Amino acid sequence: MDEQKSHGPSIKDDERYEALRDEGYSKQKAARIANTKNPGKKGGKAEIYENRTRSALYEKAKEVGIKGRSKMNKDELIHALRNN
What we know:
Blueprint: H1 14-22, H2 27-35, H3 54-64, H4 74-83
Organism: Gelidibacter maritimus
Domain Rho termination factor-like N-terminal: 55-81
GO biological process, one term: DNA-templated transcription termination
């Protein structure tokens, strides 16, 4: 039986992290997705970032672990969420 590798306390779902890394995701992006409570699926019906408040964007950035978020304005938060 395969033993699941632990990536430390910063990765909440080691199995999902490994699967994402195997698919070619970067370490940072795989960690962000593995740590998200409900990452959803491509083509989901989530509200587009531009329609969200800065507060909501900040909370999403906090959830996925984007650093420096407290100093970001709405446009910067959108950029960070899309590119991290």
